Amino acid sequence: MGENEGRRDLRMPDDDEVFAEVTNMLGANRVRVRCADGVERTARIPGRMQKRIWIREGDIVLVEPWDWQDEKADVTWRYEKSEADQLREEGHIR
Questions:
Q1: Which terminus in the chain has less CB density within 10 A, N or C?
Q2: Where in the numbering of this chain does the S1-like domain appear (predicted)?
Q3: Residue 69: which domain range?
């Protein structure tokens, strides 16, 4: 039993992505997120994710902030609960 026995390789943020926690469901495929950089943003769930992936309050997601409007972002990835726990253990998120 190695210490990395339960560890999975998780998708990490690209240069323009940040970790975020979903704080509020706004409807119309939008969620309120608190990003790791301390900014609250309104994030849009893109069409390719809407039907396949359910996003709920408290989920850890990756968002890509918009270049031209920093208070908005697109959700690019959602982590499962076990993956979010692993990210916390490894110190990537609080």
A1: N
A2: 6-80
A3: 18-89
